[in-house]
Amino acid sequence: MKNNRTLWIVIVVVLAALGACCAATAGLVLLGGWQWGNAWIDGGRTETTGQFAKAFDVRGPVKLSLDAPVGDVTIKASAEPRVAILATKRAWGSNTARAQQILDGITINADQAGDQVRIRVTGLTGVTNAPRSPQVDFVITVPKDTAVKVDSRVGRLTIAGTSGDVAITADVGDVTLADVTPAEQLQIETRVANIELSGVLASEASYRLTSDIGRIALRLPTASAFKIDARSDVGDVRVDFTVTGRSSRQGFVSKEVRGEVGTNPATALYLRSRIGEITVRAE
């Protein structure tokens, strides 16, 4: 029995160490913050920036699709029937000429087809002889009932005030949602990222939040009603609400909570973190 306990402790320590190493390595490499030094890149670091702006008039519900390899993204709701895009391109080089050359290689394609607006960025990957990776930061305003789909490899993502469905895939970078009420489904899938969601839950909607390495935190009104299926393989699961169901711990570090909160809940929460705590707070 003592040997089994010791084995479990060793496994836990190894998993935690591997998780920390993966997170640190991914963050350093993908975020482009890996500074190789002025001795290796002659001339140090010079930053060059450029602006991109475009707007589309729309009618009715809109579907926004964004492919943003590297950079921070903010999407916020507006009362205007328009999708307005403001992007800042950033590039670094050993000198001004090299930084400008990298900046000129960044292309932002934005087009509209009916109720769909698509944005795609190219020229951010495969850049060599630069002290850090180029990036494009976005601030996008959309009508409130816009459905949002974002593919992000590296960067912080913030969405506020929309009432359409949401689908997010992110490799490295925190994801923050405030007052977002999907029509039917909100799905977030991350690798190395914290996920934060606050506001009123949409009735009869499905929320699916998963992170390989990172914390998942929800802040909900005290009168919320929902079904919950939450599990962390390495980390705690804490729910402020009274849950009718079960709460269990498997092994030394795994925790799960399953059940219902409130009367006749129609909203479903599916929360998974391989390494990281899960919290659902009442506010």
What would you say about this model in short?
The chain has 283 residues and is mainly beta.
Jot down its keywords.
mainly beta; 2 domains; 11-stranded mixed β-sheet; 10-stranded mixed β-sheet; 21 strands; flat
Please, could you describe this protein's structure?
Helices cover 13% and strands 53% of the residues. It has 283 residues and is mainly beta. The protein has two domains: 161 residues, no CATH class; 90 residues, no CATH class.
Q: Tell me, briefly, the overall form.
A: flat
The biggest beta sheet is recorded as: 11 strands, mixed
Q: Rg, please?
A: 21 Å
Structural class based on helices, strands and sheet pairing: mainly beta
User: Helicity level, as a percent range?
Assistant: 10-25%
In which order are the strands of the major sheet placed? 5-6-2-8-10-12-14-20-16-19-18
Q: Summarize model confidence as the mean pLDDT.
A: 86
Distance between the termini: 43 Å
Number of helices, where a helix is a run of at least 4 consecutive DSSP H or I residues: 2
